[in-house]
């Protein structure tokens, strides 16, 4: 079945003209039409533009042009600005916003010949771990539609798991790619901070946000990262460093690879979760890797640190949404204050408002030192811990999430409980490190993910380790029932 | 008033004369139709990011070097968070704890010739906001964001000034300096150079500062002086009648010549400053500073000192002639033409007739209707006694309005001085003969009547009698009387 | 560390967010629990550690050449604006 093929396999068929991009696109569009209503993974579908783009890709293929992503359909998380196409960020505030430009990530993937099927649903302004805060309603996990797919990139994760596209872009600020990847049984990659341009990616927490991708294999992630990664002059935080050949590095043997078991991750781990990780470790040692224990003593501070830094940055980033130049404006504002307060009060959902207010509070006079400054210090300590660990090991391993997917509605009314879902993923964001989550088994019929984190710019090694694991196992090939 | 001491500090905002904005590639040219020079970055659209303009940094460093300040090797941009419609992002990118220029100073010549050193606390880079327009719009305000993102250098003085006049002298010196450095065009009507004044009073001898009020957006030297004078009187009266000065922001109303409280900024703002996560620390090394230092022109004080020394001018005259690079250059061109031995003559004419004509016609020296060569031509005729100084003024006016050189006008109007002793004597004889009573009065001791005879001879000769010869001959012919 | 209603009103005002009467107690409670949660940080020993604003060390700001690269697209940008008149963005009267 076309939708179970990997990107490389699809690219081969396209190059050999065994299928056309238009046919491939139609295949996915009809799947979406049939299956998306049960998932609510999309906010906007762009079938006409998709078919036009597919035809253009076919024209390029006909000239003999080849490319790893030429003619391949994708989905963009609705956080990436797409010129001429609605970009809502999952919010009423941008429900009427048609972006006037393409994000760099979008432009690069477009240039590589991809075909955009639509914009995926997400937690509002990327704030959430369950895709339940979206203005457009929750996304359902294809493995069990009473369960959440994770968030904030829940739509991209669910759509990838349901094989509605070969891959989907996402963003990860505190785990928003890795966590939903784990809960939906797909591969989710968060690159190093600064590896991929943030220009055109609607900002949540500027020093933590990073664009990444959902695929069904590490090999596919390598192909997509190859196009997404690289210097962009329009993003001052984007690093000007050479982009290695990620696909070439996949096949390297793992002999001698030193994998660190994070003591703090394994403490209090639920037994069935722990068992899956143990199995994975056995695979890795079988492949020649060595494991040893490492400790990141300040890691337990990572969740409170994140929930000071991220809200602080977002409280400022979201000030531009004021009803003046774009986006939602309240009806009949009686004066300027009313314009601001009601446009923002009505345009933003509860979690967003909570985080804006938390951020405003921790930055405010009298509290700055106790919260924001303190959190930035803790951030350095956590980063230093990782650096010390990476002097002893090449990668660090652990579970991606504490539990499999939970029920829709179970945690949405308890913000702090919801925040604790990010306990394993947040550290990598604070330190700017790359991380990947890959499927490693099932608990109660629901997928679980294994997380690998590496030092800065170690994506090649991460993908190599992920790829070799996927060669030795087949968790990543499992499809949810009804979506095979 | 004599029991009170006035304390004034000025915050000057100088728009830097870059071609493009500080964080975007939009043009900075003044006067374009509304919002035609505001790109996505200036408009604060979702997803956009700032990138720093190199020239703005160079200009700030140039200023720092010119005031002998420490140039920070590492400086940081911070967000100043507040809501106002002309501030699209809901925050201004500015500098807070680590500005690019730290402590410096400037020598300022006061009206009485005394020189006072005014401390400059810091100078930092920030972006300008847009403009709010109220005229012709009922119940609404129109926002033009062309100006949003224009680079500003905010120059903060120490509270070292003790009178409105001192404040104006300092402001003029900064104005001269930034134009010398070619970092700002100093055009106050266009808003390139604006001043906020912090004014407080305290009893003479008290060390503690009084509560200060800030008067915002003063855009002429005259308004600065008048606003400060009004504000000082207001504060003194308030305190003397038992009231307390409130720390607040005020506006100067030039029509009513008074300051009033700004309603919209009544509440103290908590700006919640934090380092901007979208911008990395600015690092400046020695080669960068050296390259900027190499572009420093002769500074106003250096030029004034050179003029005073080389041309034996008073400190005051030297100061006036070096108030702008263009005026100094004009003066030096005239000196080159007429010779340094006539420097005082040249100085008097440049500061006198020429400056009056420029002011009267509201013309810049670059557009003077009499250029240095032409003025030199006129001065030569005074030096060689072709015409008297008084006649020269007439010639100058004709040169200014007709655009012709001095010689042509002297010829055309027959203004050559009469230097033939015989001719002058003849006129003197006629005048004496026609005024026997005045002759008798003079000879009996009324010395002042000498002037009467001079006047009569000048009248009879159409002002062309050589004054020195006239004096000599008249003394001889009148004989007798007083001190002849 | 619990927040009072007054605290929340002040913060909401600084952030220009309207909060209805019904919503207020929910926000007071949820914000209090969040602040309580992050208070854990105050117990951490951070001593002389330098705060970290950016995750990558040793990076500094790149400088852009001073050249005009953008042209006028106000028609496109203002096509999605809530209120525009004569090229100006329109808001309720701002009184200084």
Descriptive report:
The complex is a heterotrimer of chains A (484), B (484) and C (96). Chain A is an alpha/beta fold and 484 residues long. Helices cover 39% and strands 13% of the residues of chain A. Chain A contains 17 helices and eleven strands. In chain A, strand 2, helix 4 and strand 3 form a beta-alpha-beta unit. In chain A, helix 2 packs antiparallel against helix 3, helix 7 packs antiparallel against helix 17 and helix 11 crosses helix 13. Chain B is an alpha+beta fold. In chain B, a hairpin with a 6-residue loop joins strand 8 and strand 9. Chain C is of the alpha+beta class and 96 residues long. Chain C is 32% helix and 9% strand. In chain C, a hairpin with a 2-residue loop joins strand 2 and strand 3. Chains B and C meet through strand 2, helix 2, strand 9, strand 15 and strand 16 of B and strand 1, helix 3 and strand 3 of C.
Main attributes?
heterotrimer, B: about 475 residues, alpha+beta, Arc Repressor Mutant, subunit A, 3 domains, eight-stranded mixed sheet, three-stranded antiparallel sheet, elongated, C: about 100 residues, two-stranded antiparallel sheet, 3 helices, flat
Straight-line N-to-C gap of chain A: 8 Å
Q: Look at the structure and give the mean pLDDT of chain C.
A: 92
CATH architecture label of the domain at 2-255 and 435-477 in chain A: Alpha-Beta Complex
Q: In which order are the strands of the major sheet of chain C placed?
A: 2-3
> Spans of chain C of 5+ residues with little confidence (pLDDT < 50)?
none
CATH C-level name of the domain at 2-255 and 435-477 in chain A: Alpha Beta
Give the overall shape of chain A, derived from the CA principal axes: globular
Classify the helix fraction of chain A into a percent range.
25-40%
CATH topology of the domain at 2-255 and 435-477 in chain A, by name, is Amidase signature (AS) enzymes
Helix content of chain C: 25-40%
> Are there runs of chain A of 5+ residues with pLDDT below 50, and where?
none
**How would you spell out the order of helices and strands of chain A?**
HHEHEHEHEHEEHHEHHEHHHHEHHEEH
Within the largest sheet of chain A, what's the order of strands?
1-3-2-4-6-5-10-11-9-7-8
Please give the radius of gyration of chain A in angstroms. Answer: 21 Å
Give the number of helices of chain C. Answer: 3
What's the gyration radius of chain C in Å? 23 Å
């Amino acid at each position: 079945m076309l939708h179970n093929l990997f990107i490389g396999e699809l690219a081969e068929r396209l190059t050999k003209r065994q299928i056309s991009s238009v046919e491939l696109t139609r295949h996915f569009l009809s799947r979406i039409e049939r299956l998306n209503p049960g998932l609510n993974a999309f906010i906007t579908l762009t079938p006409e533009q998709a078919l036009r783009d597919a035809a253009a890709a076919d024209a390029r293929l006909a000239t003999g042009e080849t490319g790893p992503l030429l003619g391949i359909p994708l989905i963009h998380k609705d956080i990436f600005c797409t010129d001429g196409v609605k970009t809502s960020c999952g919010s009423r505030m941008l429900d009427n916003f048609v972006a006037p430009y393409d994000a760099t990530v979008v432009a690069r993937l477009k240039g590589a010949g991809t075909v955009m099927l639509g914009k995926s649903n997400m937690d509002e302004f990327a704030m959430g771990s369950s895709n339940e805060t979206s203005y457009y309603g929750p996304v359902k996990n294809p493995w069990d539609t009473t369960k959440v797919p994770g968030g904030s990139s829940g739509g991209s994760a669910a759509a990838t798991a349901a094989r509605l596209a070969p891959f989907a872009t996402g963003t990860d600020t505190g785990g928003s790619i890795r966590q939903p990847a784990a809960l939906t049984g797909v591969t989710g990659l968060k690159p190093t901070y600064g590896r991929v341009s943030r220009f055109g990616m609607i900002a949540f927490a500027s020093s933590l946000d990073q664009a990444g991708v959902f695929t069904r294999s590490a090999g596919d992630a390598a192909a997509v990262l190859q196009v997404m990664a690289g210097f962009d002059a329009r993003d001052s935080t984007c690093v000007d460093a050479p982009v290695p050949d990620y696909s070439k590095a996949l096949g390297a043997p793992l002999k001698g690879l030193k994998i660190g078991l994070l003591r703090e991750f394994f403490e209090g781990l639920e037994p069935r979760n722990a068992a899956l990780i143990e199995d994975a470790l056995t695979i890795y040692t079988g492949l020649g890797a060595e494991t040893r224990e490492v400790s990141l003593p300040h890691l337990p501070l990572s969740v409170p640190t994140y929930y000071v830094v991220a809200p602080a940055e977002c409280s400022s980033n979201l000030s531009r949404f004021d009803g003046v130049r774009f986006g939602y404006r309240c009806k009949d504002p009686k004066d300027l204050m009313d314009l601001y307060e009601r446009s923002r009060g009505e345009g933003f959902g509860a979690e967003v408002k909570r985080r804006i207010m938390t951020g405003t509070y921790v930055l405010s006079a009298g509290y700055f030192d106790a919260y924001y400054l303190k959190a930035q210090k803790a951030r350095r300590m956590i980063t230093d811990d990782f650096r010390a660990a990476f002097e002893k090991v090449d990668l660090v391993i652990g579970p991606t999430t504490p539990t499999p997917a939970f029920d829709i509605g179970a945690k949405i009314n308890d913000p702090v409980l919801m925040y604790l879902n990010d306990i394993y993923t947040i550290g990598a964001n604070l330190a700017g490190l790359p991380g990947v989550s890959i499927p490693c088994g099932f608990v109660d019929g629901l997928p679980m993910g294994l997380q690998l984190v590496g030092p800065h710019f170690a994506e090649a090694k991460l993908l190599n380790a992920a790829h070799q694991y996927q060669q030795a196992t087949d968790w990543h090939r499992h499809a949810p029932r009804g979506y095979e | 008033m004599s029991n009170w001491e006035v304390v004034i500090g000025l915050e000057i905002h100088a728009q830097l004369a870059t071609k493009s904005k500080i964080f975007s590639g939009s043009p900075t040219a003044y006067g374009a139709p509304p919002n035609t020079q505001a790109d996505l970055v200036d408009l604060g659209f979702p997803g956009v990011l700032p990138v720093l303009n190199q020239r703005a940094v160079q200009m700030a460093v140039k200023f720092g070097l010119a005031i002998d300040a420490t140039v920070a090797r590492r400086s940081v941009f911070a967000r100043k968070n507040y809501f106002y419609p002309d501030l699209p992002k809901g925050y201004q990118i500015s500098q807070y704890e680590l500005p690019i220029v730290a402590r410096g100073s400037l020598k300022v010549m006061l009206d009485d010739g005394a020189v006072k050193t005014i401390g400059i606390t810091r100078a930092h880079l920030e972006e300008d906001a847009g403009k709010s327009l109220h005229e012709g719009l009922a119940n609404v305000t129109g926002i033009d964001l062309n100006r949003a993102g224009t680079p500003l250098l905010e120059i903060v003085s120490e509270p070292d000034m003790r009178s409105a006049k001192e404040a104006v002298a300092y402001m003029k010196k900064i104005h001269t300096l930034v134009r010398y450095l070619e970092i700002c065009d100093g055009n106050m009507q266009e808003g390139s150079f604006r001043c906020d004044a912090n004014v407080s009073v305290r009893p003479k001898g008290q060390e503690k500062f009084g509560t200060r009020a800030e008067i915002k957006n003063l855009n002429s030297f005259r308004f600065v002086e008048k606003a400060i004078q009004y504000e000082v009187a207001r504060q003194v009266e308030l305190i003397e009648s038992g009231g307390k000065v409130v720390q607040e922001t005020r506006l100067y109303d030039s029509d009513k010549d008074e300051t009033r409280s700004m309603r919209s900024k009544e509440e103290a703002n908590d700006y919640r400053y934090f380092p901007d996560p979208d911008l990395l620390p600015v690092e400046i090394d020695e080669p960068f500073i050296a390259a900027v230092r190499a572009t420093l022109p002769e500074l106003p004080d250096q030029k004034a000192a050179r003029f005073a020394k080389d041309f034996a001018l008073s400190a005051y005259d030297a100061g006036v002639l070096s108030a702008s690079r263009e005026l100094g250059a004009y003066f030096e061109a005239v000196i080159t033409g007429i010779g340094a031995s006539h420097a005082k003559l040249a100085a008097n004419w440049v500061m006198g007739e020429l400056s009056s004509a420029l002011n009267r016609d509201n013309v810049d020296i670059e557009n003077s209707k009499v250029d240095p060569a032409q003025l030199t031509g006129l001065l030569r005729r005074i030096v060689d006694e072709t015409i008297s100084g008084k006649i020269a003024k007439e010639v100058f006016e004709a040169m200014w309005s007709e655009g012709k050189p001095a010689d042509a006008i002297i010829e055309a109007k027959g203004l050559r001085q009469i230097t033939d002793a015989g001719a002058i004597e003849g006129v003197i004889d006629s005048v004496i003969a026609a005024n026997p009573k005045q002759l008798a009065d003079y000879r009996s001791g009324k010395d002042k009547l000498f002037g009467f005879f001079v006047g009569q001879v000048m009248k009879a000769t159409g002002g062309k009698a050589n004054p020195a010869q006239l004096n000599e001959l008249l003394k001889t012919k009148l004989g007798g009387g007083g001190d002849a | 560390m619990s927040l009072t209603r007054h605290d929340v009103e002040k913060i909401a005002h600084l952030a220009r967010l309207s909060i209805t009467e019904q919503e207020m107690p929910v926000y007071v409670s949820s914000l209090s629990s969040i602040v309580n949660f992050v208070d854990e940080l105050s117990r951490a020993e951070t001593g002389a550690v330098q705060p970290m604003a950016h995750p990558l060390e040793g990076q500094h700001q790149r400088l852009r050449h001073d050249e005009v690269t953008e042209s006028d697209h106000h028609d496109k940008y203002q096509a999605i604006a809530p209120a525009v008149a004569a090229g100006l963005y329109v808001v309720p009267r701002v009184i200084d």
